[in-house]
Specification:
The chain is of the alpha/beta class. Helices cover 26% and strands 34% of the residues.
């Protein structure tokens, strides 16, 4: 197993997923011959591919703050116009001596409407006990709700050699702020990488 000295998205974040998180990992793939040693990380470029520049900056900052000595927000070196030019991005990567790149993008945004059933009481032997319990629920009917589903793909590439070494697809339901959602994705991705043995820390061995 070879060890590539670079970071991936959001690594070094909290490994435990928050129980109330609205984000979950749907699928992932790793290069079976690659392991990341986070104690030997050097310099990794982080790119959030979104149209809105403010969202891009907030998302990249949320990732970079987890390990600012290793991760570099792309907006510091690549303007929005440059991001559209693959050759220009490639040039910036090599000139910046990056040994890894993480790309996050929104794959799809979907809506789903479901019926939420109201509360129903249990039956009692006498009508009085039942009625006293049931009456309040008369005012608690069922209702329809529409949920928003955001599917985000996170790809981790090595530069030498140039290849995809890890990819994961997360789904966030009714996400809140950008920071919170990116943080949840970070947790889900990092947890899976550790679980797979893709991300290790030889310094603790």
């Amino acid at each position: 197993m070879k060890s590539l000295s670079f970071f991936s998205l959001i690594l070094l974040s909290t490994l435990l997923l928050v129980s109330c998180s609205s984000t979950s990992l749907i699928s992932s793939w790793r290069d079976p011959g690659t392991t990341i040693d986070k104690s030997k990380l050097t310099k990794v470029l982080v790119i959030c591919l979104v149209k809105d520049e403010t969202t891009r900056r907030v998302g990249e900052d949320e990732i970079v703050k987890r390990n600012p000595s290793v991760l570099v927000a792309s907006y510091n070196v690549l303007t929005s116009s440059v991001l559209r030019d693959t050759a220009a991005v490639d040039k910036a990567i090599y000139q910046g001596s990056y040994d890894g790149i993480v790309i996050m993008r929104l794959v799809s945004k979907e809506q789903a409407t479901s019926y939420v059933q109201g509360s129903y009481p249990s039956y009692y032997y006498g009508w009085g006990g039942y009625y006293g319990y049931a009456a309040p629920y008369y005012y608690d009917p069922g209702y329809y709700q529409t949920d928003q589903y955001y599917n985000v793909e996170t790809n981790v590439y090595s530069i030498h050699p140039d290849k995809l070494i890890w990819t994961g697809l997360t789904q966030s339901v009714n996400p809140g702020s950008i920071q919170t959602t990116i943080g949840e994705i970070a947790n889900a991705v990092t947890y899976q990488m550790k679980k797979e043995g893709f991300l290790v820390d030889s310094a603790k061995k």
